[in-house]
């Protein structure tokens, strides 16, 4: 493996915790070059909601490529682009009565966030954006400015300005009313808070520690934004495309954000793709005012459209995800009860779940134990104190049970030695 340390930047991270060379992957399994199998509870950080090399999506992709169809097209019209837009409209937007226009901002989630922030400022003529504690929105400068993690922010090398953090739901453990500080600053002419263009929020904070906002809190935030003429940006990059059960993570709260950011699993196959959905009246771009070379990747359009047809023609996947999530939640609660002295906390919604430990050291050791038993999962939270799982939504119940058994064993092994 010397080529990786000799030639690749020190910025690599996941490979440090999983020091093997992977070669194949299918469904919920990855295989290293020696053929050892690993049960994947990471799923490309949420980019593989339908599993590795999903056979139905793979067939659609291979058929498209074998016919010499258009691969790269910027924003030119193509049959693949049309099919994707028509399927998005018929399978996702219209059933939810969402009247959005679609921006293709570039291939990554951070591109979707940058487009949202830029458009919000253009629409409102304001500069300031409200973000939340423990938020993560991407690694480019605009997205970093609304991200909470100090290590990631520190990599910017310049001051990150025009953003003001507010407490996320339960940040004060219920000691104060929702939005007490935020609302007071908005209404106080002496607060010094610049009038915000937008608020950007995750319904469930993935990298921040699997912090799931209450539906009431999200409704209160949407109401506050509307009262003050502030645009609401919902970052659904990791938690969208069914991760919490519903296609959008905000559906449970019954709110309609002004702007929605999607990426990761929107292509369905792990191909680079991102969308910024905006209310039609907000689409005030001039032609070419926001663009990018890789905003027309047709293979991603093909797999995305096929995934929507297969998995979002009915609510079967949504109901399955919620049921599997409840199974995980009950097992994590059992671990909390089994080790009261460890003061564990079960967290999450759907198949975005976490188990919070007293330290990042303990959570990291549990993940290392799981890896030694043939399973992949990561940590999240400001100190890496949350053991985080994002299994494929298509995982079988048997595979899910197998992974949960490994987690039980790994937690027992670590806590028994402390």
TrEMBL record:
Record pathway: Amine and polyamine biosynthesis; ectoine biosynthesis; L-ectoine from L-aspartate 4-semialdehyde: step 1/3
TM ranges: none
GO molecular function, one term: diaminobutyrate-2-oxoglutarate transaminase activity
GO biological process terms held by the UniProt record: ectoine biosynthetic process
Enzyme class: transferase
EC number(s) recorded for this UniProt protein: 2.6.1.76
Family matches, as Pfam families: Aminotran_3 (PF00202)
Lineage per the UniProt record: Bacteria, Bacillati, Actinomycetota, Actinomycetes, Micrococcales
Keyword Transferase: yes
Family listed: Belongs to the class-III pyridoxal-phosphate-dependent aminotransferase family.
Protein name, UniProt field: Diaminobutyrate--2-oxoglutarate transaminase
Coiled coil: none
Organism of provenance: Actinotalea soli
Essential cofactor(s): pyridoxal 5'-phosphate
Keyword field: Aminotransferase, Pyridoxal phosphate, Transferase
Family matches, as InterPro entries: Aminotrans_3, Aminotrans_3_PPA_site, Dat, Ectoine_EctB, PyrdxlP-dep_Trfase, PyrdxlP-dep_Trfase_major, PyrdxlP-dep_Trfase_small
The keyword Plastid is assigned to this record: no
Gene: ectB
